[in-house]
Backbone:
């Protein structure tokens, strides 16, 4: 019998995940707890959701705990989602889990966590990862029936993130930064097909121009408020461009990705999630 | 039969814990090694002790290795402590283990590590985590009797940290920063009860003033030497205050904790462990 | 039957290792995956090689995956090396694995990874850790024969790092920084014996002078281009010098190591890998 699988993602940083591991192993000593990432940028639900999309399709079937939870201590619901592949996703009802759940066969049933018999005896107002999510996940991994976690909630009532989309406008692609990867590569909304529809066939070395709009939060700063232009090329691999030069390509999951060859384009250009960008020919 | 549990805390950062894991698995291949935290601020025994207090009560019964060891290579003793709950704590005799041991039922027996048959064959002067603590822990996890690690040492002879206490003086609470948490939340000595005794009943939104004394180590710098005033409120959750505002509340373990809602109050105010702070009404 | 061991080192940082763990556990659910270090400085093959030398001799016999791979997406080969101790090392053919393989009994057989049946069905151009190395390692850990990974490659054809050596010249030791350790300790090429041959017997407290040449990459900057002199002493432990002072000693593995007692000498002096240094008496 293989060990029951629990995966674990959070924005906790280095100290808090260990406590949650202790809680889970205390309940399910034979669990195989697989850490996905605990360095999700703090409170960034979108980055956490992207990290789950990146990781969960490669994880064994199991119980997946994810905690990026700016609303802890408010009335946001703790939820568990049963998906088509057979996994259960557990976390706050703030949009974090939805996209990954859809990749794993779609949400079959959603329940609110209300069964305190599956929680730690004392629940704090600020650490539901330890007190609610981890112990409930461990009980489910041990075989506790899904229905025991709490009452169902209509799938359509779950909170969803607003999804940035790439759109073709007058022969250019209007898109947005959806994720800054660990090495500073920047993932944009949209695919190779979207970009081809906008600017025509993509061949290695084809010159492209990215124009980043001013970040919304820096509107008052004249310097940062300026738009930013990065001239780059289409490439198949990092090796398509010299060391330190940028390249636009399809990432490992088929999305548009801007990188510096052996560099950190996000740091070089000061790029952050949600910044709008327009791709044109040059 | 469940896997024997070894938990592991250090100030090693990312590279050195892996070597110790290898040593432990080489001796006890079926161990369940649970990482607590390896990002304890370097050489901060108090931060390490606080991290153990935070984590060990939630860990399964087992062998707990903790290494924050500014005295490695001097004559500080390596020790193992048997506690009331049945666990064994292993680490340097510098105060790191004591508070957590008391939470786990108190120290029943203390021994100095002297049995070289339980160590690596060659012991370096600077990496006792790998050469002494890890292999001894693994042998104990496999069932080696506690008495075999070395001779007993009187419990009263163990080195203890001086504990900061909160005291009520003329209707104010004199306290100290005892820990800076991973997200920048700041834990103070004392509890809600201490603060109530000092300033009266605490209700959500009640205005409070924190006055931080000059940090001892910055006495010569006129800017840093100034005291620092932070006006805050009592709250039940982060949601009690606007984004970015500070709030004083009871943390997950019942201690007084100052936080910025979705911010990092320690970084904003430059707060470090051991800095004195006075809490008053305003 | 003990769990099959897979160790794992990379320069991936916090997010990408989890995905690879998922891939490996999906194939080999009972594997014991031991993380060595995922914070190797990005693209630094030499730092990765040093981290393997530091760790692998302490790891159980198993399959060792290491990915520091600036050439991913080019024609550098993915390889697997069978060593005398019985382990298999897997990673890019760029010199990363060689020194550790020699420590584990030497390379017995080398093969290029070409068997796509052991890879993920779709292979990206930029994430061979997930798509090639991790799944091949997991299949080998499950018992897949070594010969099945692909055809042999002559051992002499493997890419090797140029090794920095310490040399005695006119009574001084000419050496080089070969590794910056996690705490900022700096490992130099050469051993205590080399230094004794250069300057005579080493006794605790003996004064020594280290002269660091200008770093090659800063030649154009007049400030950084200056040589740097650090006066230090020979010591047996950190305790040989006052807090904050530097000490030259033999590290846990017998190499020359410069440290600040409870400090970070690399940060204080701005030291990086490959910078030349001359050790003399004073």
Residues:
């Amino acid at each position: 019998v293989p060990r029951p699988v629990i995966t674990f993602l959070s924005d906790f940083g280095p100290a808090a995940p260990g406590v949650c591991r202790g809680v889970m192993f205390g309940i399910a000593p034979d669990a195989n707890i697989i850490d996905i990432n605990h360095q999700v940028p703090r409170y960034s639900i979108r980055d956490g959701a992207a990290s789950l999309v990146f990781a969960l399709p490669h994880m064994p079937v199991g119980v997946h705990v994810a905690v990026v939870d700016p609303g802890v201590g408010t009335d946001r619901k703790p939820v568990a989602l049963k998906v088509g592949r057979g996994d259960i996703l557990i976390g706050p009802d703030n949009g974090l889990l939805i996209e990954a759940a859809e990749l794993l066969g779609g949400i079959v049933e959603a329940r609110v966590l209300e069964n305190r018999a599956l929680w730690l005896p004392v629940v704090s107002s600020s650490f539901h990862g330890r007190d609610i999510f981890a112990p409930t996940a461990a009980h489910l991994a041990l075989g506790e029936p899904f229905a025991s976690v709490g009452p169902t909630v209509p799938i359509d009532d779950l909170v969803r993130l607003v999804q940035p989309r790439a759109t073709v406008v007058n022969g250019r692609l209007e898109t947005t930064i959806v994720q800054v990867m660990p090495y500073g590569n920047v993932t944009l909304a949209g695919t190779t097909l979207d970009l081809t529809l906008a600017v025509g066939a993509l061949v290695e070395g084809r010159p492209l121009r990215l124009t980043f709009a001013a970040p919304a939060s820096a509107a008052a700063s004249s310097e940062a408020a300026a738009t930013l232009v990065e001239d780059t090329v289409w490439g198949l691999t990092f090796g398509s461009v010299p060391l330190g030069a940028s390249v636009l390509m399809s990432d490992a999951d088929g999305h548009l990705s801007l990188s510096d060859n052996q560099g950190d384009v996000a740091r070089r250009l000061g790029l952050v999630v949600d910044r709008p960008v327009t791709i044109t020919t040059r």
In short: Residues 128-141 of chain C form the longest helix (14 residues). Residues 217-224 of chain C have pLDDT under 50 and may be disordered. Chain C touches chain A at residues 12-16, 18-19, 21-23, 25-26, 29-30, 42-43, 70-74, 124-127, 130-131 (CB under 8 Å).
